[in-house]
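As a warm-up, study this chain.
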Amino acid sequence: MSRTAEEALRDAGLLAGRCLLVFIFLHEAVSLVGNYAGAAAYMQKSGVPSLLLPAVIALQLGGGLLIAVGILARPAALLFAAFCLLTAILFHWQFADRNQLLHFQKDLAIAGGFLVLACCGPGNWSLGRYFVRQAS
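Now compare it with the structure written out below.
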């Protein structure tokens, strides 16, 4: 495979990976806005102040869009990795419940994906890379 084809395949994979990683968060942000009171009550029940809900929605929606388009993807990915780890610890710690254990493991796996993205960056197929080229 030529270097150009290899780079294009890598960039296509990074674009697809970015979009797949954040899809769940973009969808969840819309759901949280639609059921704000229910989400706030769930947070309170879990011992997390519902005052944090606007920040959660902002991260999921704003950060998700930034990663999808590849702008500030590395710092946003680090924020998401931390968010996923905190979500696992705060909401899915009851390992006797198989469903909670599965959610805990999924949160860890997603955090791992965001850490890989933070290390690799968004790739060439991103608006961030486009803006860097335009500024040069």
